[in-house]
Amino acid sequence: MTNEKENEKRAPFESRPKVEPTLLRELRSAETLKSMTLDELKRLATEIRSTICDLAERRGVHFASNLGVVELAIALHSTFDFRRDRLVWDVGHQCYPHKLLTGRFAEFSGIRTRGGLSGYPDPDESEYDLFRTGHAGCSVGTALGLARGDELAARLNGGETASEAEKSGESEKTDAPRYSVAVVGDGALAGGPIFEALNHAGGLRQKMLVVLNDNKMSICQRVGGLGRSLDKMRTAPTYLGARTAFRQFVEKTPSAYRFLTRLRDAAKAGLVGGMLFEDFGFRYVGPIDGHDLATLRKYLERIKTIDEPVLLHVLTEKGRGYRPAEIDPAHFHATSPEQALNAESVVLLDQWADDELKTSKSRRATNPKKARANALDAAIADAPDAARVVDLLDAANDGKERSFTDWARCAIYRAMKRDPRVCVVVAAMTQGNMLEAARAEFPERFFDVGICEAHAVNFAAGLAKAGMRPIVDIYSGFLQRAYDHLFQEASLQNLPIIFALDRAGLVGADGPTHHGVFDLSYMRPFPNITTIAPGDACDMARAFEFALTLDGPTAIRYPKTKAARIRREVAPFELGRAEVLRDGADGAFVVCGGGILKTALDLAEDFARGAVPGRPVLDVGVVNARFAKPLDRDRVLRPLREGIPTVAVEENALIGGFTSAVLEAANDEGLDARFLLRKGVPDAFIRCGSRDEQLADAGLDRAGLLAAFDEIRARVARLTGAESAAQGARETENDGVIVKIDKVGAR
Q1: Catalytic entry in 481, 524, 557, 629
Q2: For the purposes of burial, counting CB atoms within 10 Å of the CB of 557, is it exposed (0-12), middle (13-18) or buried (19 or more)?
């Protein structure tokens, strides 16, 4: 590799040429784009990329995907009027250019912060945003529904759409039909909902446009046979050239149209690799260069005149315009300021950029960081028990806290190393789940199914039925997409599948589309599914080992945060058994989950030391529930049985979760539930912000737990005070009755 190339790939953000956003500052509406020259639009694309890079220097953002759709967003907004026309971005994390083009530059610096713009489309922000998209697979179906709904509404309202009628003259009325556009990535294309919608749209012959944004990526590398088919379409210059010649010839010989069309279709099937989209009933157009503004606009204008469903295949480059992100788009899918500003980390030369390093095992082996990681992985695999794993990881990290995800990674790697039956199934989130090492070492037992969570569960069920021990590692908020299959293929069959629910709880800047706050509520009703919520790092190491001993399905949920190591003699993991960390006569916290357990324990210990301002010394107990199902009624309900004020805490929706289970159990035993106060995520969507801010909003930070403890103690004091007063009144009344009886007897 030349020094010039190496320097280019190592270039940090701060070495980029800065571009003044002169056009963006003045852009109030996407309608302005229609009056801009091509050169101005190209300048605008440069300003958008520079603005996104500037933001990445200050805050964690979705990065590479947004750099890849700049020209596509400009072309769409300069061709259509999406104040009337319809635009749905699948997933939605690539909407930054769309937001900048629709007048939100002034607020853009606050994106993904509390009170700022959402990192996803949001109808509360702009008329250009129709849905709060955040998961893959919605775009084609919702765009199809919009297209057909607009047609039906127009008939009902005499040519005027329903939404226009509601505005009653606020905007200029027009008889022109609306056009509906869905933008879907090649990674999401393989998901079932997309194929269901394509099938329906083709059957309806509904006029609409599906833009296939093909960047050869999901979040990580895309997988599966469909990806290979798209690659074949990308590399079919023979067909693309022949198509132009065919069109010119047909224009001169219209009488031969039918025969030549069949000949074209046969040639297309052979040269491009099938007629998949046209067999669905779509007119297939492309592939075309997704970074050529002139070509994009020309094709979009032509497509507007076609009265049938059209799929436009657009080739883009994820990370376009910033070389390190082009080289490693998976690493730069979502970037942090540290990644952006650290010249050494931006390209990961020993893994991606240098072809020689890719192929030279000897040079990779001499990488000290890689060698240390390999040695640690080997020691973890050979450790005699979970306690030793915890000690090893603590020592390797100099006592610094690792994330729950990192602890899960180590547990999964260790399980795969020690048991050849253990398989891993992920849904396009290998990197997010930190499982690259497991994928590299055990490729025959590692399965990335793409953004297809329902299939992931079904596939794992087949593996389990065949005698394997699958671990399905999926974000909590994404497993919701497989709900029916959790019932049918996991719970009903009672198969030994482990569901590793990463990002369970509040997730920070990604906001309500990604919070994992419903899994306890949707898992708990299913028979046979054991639900574990590890309390700390020590529990994480043990939870996976324990789950592998069970003969039925198990869910292990853990949050997106650092995992504290609570120093104590760790109680053994037993089915449905909680762990008492502290006994207390003055109150108790019963906590389900590791994101909050350490907070509650620190507060209880501060009470014991008299270190809580304005409060007396109190003896407060703490129970690490460990299991949401089966519930340890003995330990969890013990404080209530003893009349001790109890706060039950979970990082899950209050409706139907762990604290509901505690309340149900208390009712079953006839305990006084007035001595119980429940804390969890309220019945509302928690907006974007940092995780700490979101915990505070939900009352799950230290201040919130303290307020809850004060509230339940005050309630119990009122109850016991009222009961004491009532008892005194009863005794006085009884005394009076006795006196009267004595007097009567005396007569």
Answers
A1: 481
A2: buried
Residue 718 contacts by C-beta under 8 Å, 6 or more apart in sequence?
Answer: none
The string of pLDDT tens digits covering residues 330-344 is: 767 666 665 555 533
Alpha helices, DSSP H only, in 80-205? 96-101, 105-108, 139-156, 162-167, 186-189, 192-204
Q: Which of 94, 79, 101 is nearest to 209 (CA)?
A: 79
Show the CA angle centred on residue 256, arms to residues 251 and 261, nearest 5°: 80
Question: Which two structure tokens, joined as six digits, stand for 532?
Answer: 């574990």
**Sign of CA pseudo-dihedral 155, 156, 158, 160:** negative
The CB-side HSE value for 302 (13 A sphere, CA atoms) comes to 13
Q: pLDDT for 616-674, tens place per residue? A: 999 999 999 999 999 999 999 999 999 999 999 999 999 999 999 999 999 999 999 99
Give mean pLDDT, residues 95-108.
Answer: 86
- 94 in Cβ contact with 85 (< 8 Å): no
DSSP 206: -
Active site residue 465: no
* Better-predicted residue by pLDDT, 270 or 74: 74
Tell me which amino acid residue 623 is.
V
Q: What gap in Å lies between CA 347 and CA 330, rounded to an integer?
A: 11
Please confirm, yes or no, whether 164 is among the known catalytic residues. Answer: no
Do 524 and 657 contact (CB within 8 A), yes or no? yes
Q: Is the pTM of this model over 0.70?
A: yes
- For 500, the token pair is 């590793």
Catalytic residue of the set 112, 318, 542, 582: 318
- Output the CA–CA distances (angstroms, integers) from residue 674 to 51, 587, 625, 654, 662, in the order listed: 54, 14, 20, 17, 13
Q: Which residues contact 194 (CB under 8 A, 6 or more apart)?
A: 90, 137, 139, 140, 141, 184, 188
| Cα separation, 84 vs 252, whole angstroms | 38
Which has more confidence, 733 or 394?
394
Whether 291 shows a pLDDT value over 50: the answer reads: yes
Instruction: Answer yes or no: is pLDDT of 235 > 70.
Output: no
Which residues partner with 91 through β-bridges?
A: none
From 47, 164, 453, 651, active-site residue: 453
- Comparing CA positions, the residue from 147, 25, 32 lying closest to residue 78 is 32
What tokens appear for 706 in the block? Answer: 């303290």
Q: Is 318 a catalytic residue?
A: yes
